[in-house]
Amino acid sequence: MSPLNIEKGSSKHSAYDLRDPHAERLERHTLAIIVDNESGVLARVIGLFSARGYNIDSLTVAEVDHEGHRSRITIVTTGTAQVIIQIKAQLERMVSTHEVHDLTTEGPSVERELALFKVAGKGEPRIEALRLAEIFRANVVDSTLESFVFEMTGTPEKVDAFAELMRPLGLREVARTGVAALSRGQ
């Protein structure tokens, strides 16, 4: 039997499967970090990621406690389970960090993103863009004779799906806020 012939029911992998069977699986995690609202904190958090070659898929920051001078940083990142554990441990060691929550592992959570889409078009593509916007519950926030700006909130997957459908209809520009997330319940 040649190496490319795999018997039916064999426990061997396909010759066409080039994935390393020993490689760890990449996981997407949403981290919520409560930090002091002071200059340089965000730069240190981002520096932690960039110095180790970790990618940030989404980043949102806002002050959440004016009197306590605290901000919430929400980061969506992807890595192996070991990399995620390491990221959380390093964030927790930062002096300005008060809390680190992995919303992906702590239970059910809600994620939303706000996005603006500029779509240019006339005639049938323009009508189709309006029809799809209605289906996705996107609001028209600006309109000219040649373009629309749609506003939509939803999961990152919903935002991606809407963008893909708008692309052939004249999508010109997209602005996204990044993920805002909260755990559900108490």
From TrEMBL:
Domain of life of the organism encoding this protein: Bacteria
CDD domains: ACT_AHAS
Keyword annotations of the record: Amino-acid biosynthesis, Branched-chain amino acid biosynthesis, Transferase
Pathway: Amino-acid biosynthesis; L-isoleucine biosynthesis; L-isoleucine from 2-oxobutanoate: step 1/4; Amino-acid biosynthesis; L-valine biosynthesis; L-valine from pyruvate: step 1/4
GO MF assignments: acetolactate synthase activity; acetolactate synthase regulator activity
Gene Ontology biological-process entries: isoleucine biosynthetic process; L-valine biosynthetic process
Keyword Transferase assigned: yes
Keyword DNA repair: no
Domain (ACT): residue spans on this chain: 30-108
Catalyzed reactions: 2 pyruvate + H(+) = (2S)-2-acetolactate + CO2
InterPro entries, sorted: Acetalactate_synth_ssu, Acetolactate_synth/TF_NikR_C, Acetolactate_synth_ssu_C, ACT-like_dom_sf, ACT_dom, AHAS_ACT, AHAS_small-like_ACT
EC number: 2.2.1.6
Pfam families: ACT_AHAS_ss, ALS_ss_C
Entry GO CC: cytosol
Role of this protein: Catalyzes the conversion of 2 pyruvate molecules into acetolactate in the first common step of the biosynthetic pathway of the branched-amino acids such as leucine, isoleucine, and valine.
Subunit structure: Dimer of large and small chains.
NCBIfam families named in the record: acolac_sm (TIGR00119), PRK11895.1 (NF008864)
Family note: Belongs to the acetolactate synthase small subunit family.
Protein name: Acetolactate synthase small subunit
Organism annotation: Rhabdonatronobacter sediminivivens
Protein encoded by which gene: ilvN
